[in-house]
Amino acid sequence: MPLPIVHLELNGPGAAAAARSAARRFLGSGDAGTRAFTPVARDTALPVINELATHAVRHTSGGCVLELHKTPDDGLDVDVSDTSSADPRPRTPRSAG
Q1: Cα(26)–Cα(63) distance, rounded to whole angstroms?
Q2: pLDDT, position 30
Q3: For the chain, domain boundaries
Q4: What is the pTM of this model?
Q5: Region labeled Disordered — which residues (predicted)?
Q6: 83-97 in b/e burial notation, b at 16+ Cβ within 10 A?
Q7: Residue closest to 69 by CA, chosen among 38, 37, 40
């Protein structure tokens, strides 16, 4: 039986919100006959997914992709990628966020 997967193209001003919404649905469901993630797993994964998606959308000029995969051992793989060919570079944090 194939394991559940989410593939979401992240583009435009609502991209981070769409990623959060898709992640909430994915983590809260027991799709394809698999067990749903535990509340602790959801509460741990959602902020991580939110940060990864928000940063990818904010710091690239092209589109981004979010993929969530449920692993055979009921774990979670989170992949966020962007279309930029430039390597990431360190930035000085701003005090305003």
Answers
A1: 21
A2: 63
A3: 5-82
A4: 0.78
A5: 70-97
A6: eeeeeeeeeeeeeee
A7: 37
pLDDT in tens, 22-57: 998 888 876 645 677 888 988 999 999 999 998 888
SS3 of 78, please? strand
Number of CB atoms found within 10 A of residue 49's CB: 22
Give residue 46's region: left, alpha or beta (phi > 0; psi -120 to 50): alpha
Of 70, 61, 67, the residue nearest 42 (C-alpha): 70
Reported as a single tens digit per residue, the pLDDT across 51-91 is: 999 888 888 877 889 999 988 888 899 999 988 887 877 87
Q: 81 forms bridges with which residues in the sheet? A: 65
CA distance 13 to 26: 22
Phi and psi torsions of 16, nearest 5°: -65, -40
Spatial distance between the Cα atoms of 19 and 90, rounded to a whole number of angstroms: 24
